[in-house]
Design goal:
With about 425 residues, the protein is an alpha/beta fold. It contains 20 helices and eleven strands. Helix 3 links the parallel strand 2 and strand 3. Helix 13 packs parallel to helix 15 and helix 18 crosses helix 19. One of its GO terms (biological process) is tyrosyl-tRNA aminoacylation.
Length: about 425
């Protein structure tokens, strides 16, 4: 069994960097210095199928505990996802079906392994204990928290004041999440700042069951690509952990300059001293491009690896900065694409992801029609709908063989050698008939 590390420098970094608040810091620091192997929990509900860089912030904090030799727990809230976390919501979340939850979480562990050493992770699902509770157990659990405590939650308070619907199952959500910490005997729990109420409820429920309350670490929320709101799939301002290295690098480069320091601090291993010097240089008027490229490289490196980051940077410099056509371009054969779409649609028949099936059908229909630029874009997957394809063309975001297409109704002749379709600055696809 690996020995727990009590290195002072590493402990101080864990407690200070990338943390918003620690409850109770003195207690956690004492535990870390004791050499005791702690059980450290991070829970994520599978309300979506994609883990993104916002999740990477808390996953990296979990990895710091793992690197010190502690037992980390990656908890997938497959039971609580049926209710949905009411945090920040002004109305009840539509309940998810079991099929939707299973579909969403099927690749969670694989995605988390991009940050964690998954072989040393205790992976748990809260349905393991919550689904087996009988009415007596549920009544006992509800006795561990009061109405006044739950009603003081900010978003609940607002909905009560506005006489908006607030269901009892939503009231139960933080209590059930708190019980997860009882079931897992958690010493520490990690989450974003928006999860503070739920994390503290874990302490409360543990106390009521006679357990020592967990210490809590909240991490800052990562701002999304819009530069305003937290990174979220629902806001479409996210960078997925599964994005190709070139795509991840390119998206990071679209971040506002104001994100450089927080990006370096939360998502890279660059030392705090170096980051302070960068912050000083930027304040003195240094061109931010150099540091943004550093940020993009380091983030891709931590998620994908050094070689992948190097390749992504070269790709960006050639295609974006030097406006060269990349050496490796995806080739789509329309006949093969048609057959592939049919196969994917057949597989989707039993899936809950209706949106994905509809997009595939739209692509298939587009390949069956005449070769208008809109149909080509939807058919090869560079646009998910004809409406999106039209907007891209109107905004000047589509090129065929290097020429900007301005007419959304233009018919494209696909020559024997094929055509080069470009969306924006980073996406290139060679389209051939045979």
């Amino acid at each position: 069994m690996p020995k727990v590390t009590t290195d002072d420098k590493k402990i101080q970094q864990l407690l200070s960097r990338g943390t918003a608040e620690i409850i109770v810091k003195e207690n956690l620091e004492k535990k870390l210095r004791s050499g005791k192997k702690l059980r450290v929990k991070l829970g994520i509900d599978p309300t979506g199928s994609v883990l993104h860089l916002g999740h990477a912030v808390v996953l990296r904090k979990l990895k710091e505990f793992q690197d010190l030799g502690h037992q980390v727990i990656f908890l997938i809230g497959d039971f609580t996802a049926r209710i949905g976390d009411p945090t920040g919501r002004s109305k009840e979340r539509k309940p998810m079906t079991e099929k939707e939850i299973k579909q969403n979480m099927k690749n969670y562990v694989k995605q988390a392994s991009l940050v964690l050493d998954i072989n040393k992770v205790e992976v748990k699902y809260n349905s393991e204990w919550l689904k087996n509770m009988d009415l007596k157990d549920v009544i006992t659990l509800t006795s561990k928290a009061t109405y006044a405590q739950i009603a003081q939650r900010g978003d609940f308070k607002k909905r009560i004041k506005e006489d908006a619907d607030l269901t009892l199952q939503e009231f139960m959500y933080p209590i059930m999440q708190g019980y997860d910490s009882v079931a897992l005997k958690a010493d520490v729990e990690i989450g974003g700042t928006d999860q503070k109420f739920n994390l503290l409820m874990g302490r409360q429920i543990q106390k009521r069951y006679g357990h020592e309350p967990q210490d809590v670490i909240t991490c800052p929320l990562l701002i999304g690509l819009d530069g305003k709101h937290k990174m979220s799939k629902s806001l479409d301002n996210y960078i997925a952990l599964t994005d190709a290295p070139e795509e991840m690098y390119g998206k990071i480069m679209t971040y506002p300059d104001s994100m450089i320091i927080s990006g370096l601090e939360l998502l890279t291993d660059i030392s705090s001293e170096v980051i302070k010097n960068i912050e000083k240089s930027l304040a003195e008027g240094e061109n931010p491009m150099r540091y943004k490229k550093m940020m993009a490289f380091e983030i891709v490196k931590t998620i994908k690896g050094v070689k992948e980051a190097q390749g992504a940077q070269v790709y960006f410099e050639r295609t974006i900065q030097q406006k060269e056509i990349p050496q490796k371009i995806e080739i789509i054969n329309l006949r093969e694409r048609y057959s592939d779409l049919l196969a994917q649609i057949k597989k989707c028949k039993d899936l809950a992801d209706k949106k994905n099936r509809e997009e595939l059908l739209e692509s298939l229909r587009s390949l069956s029609d005449k070769n208008s630029i809109i149909n080509i874009l939807v058919g090869i997957g560079l646009a998910t709908s004809k409406g999106e394809a039209r907007r891209l063309i109107e905004q000047g975001g589509i090129k065929i063989d290097g020429e900007v297409i301005k007419d959304a109704n233009k018919i494209i002749e696909i020559t024997k050698d094929g055509i080069l379709v470009q969306r924006g600055k980073r996406q290139f696809v060679k389209v051939v008939k045979e």
